[in-house]
Amino acid sequence: MRIATFNLNNLFDRFNFEVQLDALPSREEIAAQALKVIPDEDGSLGRTDGGIGGLVKPKPLTERIRLAERIRLLDADVLVVQEVEHRDALREFNAAAPEHGGLGGLYSIVVCIDGNDPRRIDVGVLSRIPLGGVTSWQHVIHPELPDRPVFSRDLLEVDLLDSRFERVVATCLVTHLKSQLIPYERGQTATDRERVERANDLLRGRQAEMIARILQRRRLDRPHLVAGDMNDAPDSEPLRPLRDAPTGLVDGLADPVEEPPYRLAEDDPPQSVRWTHRYRTGGSTSYELFDQLWLDPRAAERQTGSGIGRRRRKTTDGSDHDPAWVDLDLPH
């Protein structure tokens, strides 16, 4: 069984219908409010993106086609995804024909639950393995953060069943931890940016801590794993709770293969194949393993391989992340 994780990079959908513009408030009035309907120049309706200020538009067709191509090559039995607008957007992407930027019904099961993110980017699951229970942990509160849920997106728990629907063969927890992004604000100082960075790291660490606590409380008697975009390196301080989890989680991508080998950075190549996200800053390129799969000892004993599906374009190739996977010898 191949279980993979992939950040789909703003797989947005949108309403698109004709309106009477003079019957609506001005663009400026609506743009000041996040997540409100807003008229576009062509007379259709979109909505703002939750505070960044731009108009939410659907993912361009060329990018959807590239994204779908990469997913088909990945050939995962269970694909956990991040940055999906809602269940309908994911269902449409799965059902659409390849020439229309979709997967052509590659997966029989589509899971996505609205989470906590103000931009409405959710986590989800595409599966051709039967699923049992699906649980959202989005309402969990950290003891040191009692006024709001700790997960800025969600933590989904899904049970994978055998083909007879008789027993749970594995459980997968899907998440998308706090971003490292520091939004630009006019008059922002270096001290301000450091403060935001510390707050981001603290929240990401609390999220990782709650994942470890939930697993400890669940006492699962079957193989299980944590998968998703962790927005930090596996050896980072915020992710220490995963490394030190009482249930004994191990990095499933300790020795991944790279398919195909990355050959797009001859001037500034990565030092290892262990990366899924790249970005340029200060004239250099950083390569980070943000997308991860952590296995409990039962799952680790059944692991037969792991890998990263490498992009074929220097910038984005449908997504600014690369998918990662583990292969497990599980009945299905």
UniProtKB/TrEMBL annotation:
Keywords (A to Z) from UniProt: Endonuclease, Hydrolase, Nuclease
Superkingdom of origin: Bacteria
GO MF annotation list: endonuclease activity
Annotated InterPro entries: Endo/exonu/phosph_ase_sf (IPR036691), Endo/exonuclease/phosphatase (IPR005135)
Presence of keyword Cytoplasm: no
Record region (Disordered): 227-248, 298-332
Pfam families (alphabetical): Exo_endo_phos
Every Endonuclease/exonuclease/phosphatase domain range: 64-321
Biased composition (Basic and acidic residues): 315-332
Name of this chain's protein: Endonuclease/exonuclease/phosphatase family protein
Origin species: Patulibacter brassicae
